[in-house]
Task: structure prediction
Amino acid sequence: MNAPVDVSFFQRAAKPITSYRPYWAKRFGVAPFLPMNRSEMERLGWDSCDIVLVTGDAYVDHPSFGMAVIGRVLEAQGFRVGIIAQLPARKA
Result:
């Protein structure tokens, strides 16, 4: 078996997330909601998301929900964050 080979020439540490310039949030402000589909992105004037969070839980934009907290922390760092959450329950 061949052992994995490190092909990098320099030691590289992971770049801290707080080291990125908060471009989007500083320039346009925080979004009133994190989009869950293309039409919501268009309402915010976004053409794409920088990060998409995927969860099997329902999404509620409230600090008691983990995905909302993670999404808002990433947004505060300047990323445009979208959410793919559990589909809404259908009424029987």
